[in-house]
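User: Just a sanity check before I run the rest of the batch. Below are the structure tokens for the first item. I only need the designed sequence back.
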């Protein structure tokens, strides 16, 4: 299974990041949920602290381009296998930074990828 960091996690059940937390869990993917506020969201802990000493296969982004800026260096240091830019999170600047570090990225929907078996 693919260890996944959800960047922009939310306890709001109408948010796609929340739906992704649950669907990733349903598909047995280990998740680390990073959000604006530290909270317990049913069985998920949403942290507001960047993960330490973790290896992530995938980072799934649910933040707009402006709110991603504070994470640029941290994402590059993390060196995930891939970064998924979910709808609304597209970011040409971050694409260039990831490309320079040979980190694969894709504009896609984590939910669709899981449901179609291409995650």
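Assistant: Here's the designed sequence for the first item:
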């Amino acid at each position: 299974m693919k260890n996944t960091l959800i960047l922009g996690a939310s306890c709001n059940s109408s948010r796609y990041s929340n739906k992704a937390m649950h669907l990733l869990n349903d598909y047995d993917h280990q998740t680390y949920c990073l959000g604006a506020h530290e909270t317990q969201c049913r069985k998920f802990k949403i942290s507001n602290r960047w993960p330490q000493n973790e290896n992530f296969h995938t980072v799934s982004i649910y933040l707009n381009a402006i709110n991603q800026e504070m994470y640029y260096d941290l994402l590059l240091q993390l060196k995930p296998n891939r970064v998924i830019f979910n709808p609304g999170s597209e970011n040409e600047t971050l694409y260039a930074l990831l490309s320079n570090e040979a980190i694969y990225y894709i504009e896609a929907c984590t939910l669709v990828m899981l449901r179609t078996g291409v995650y």
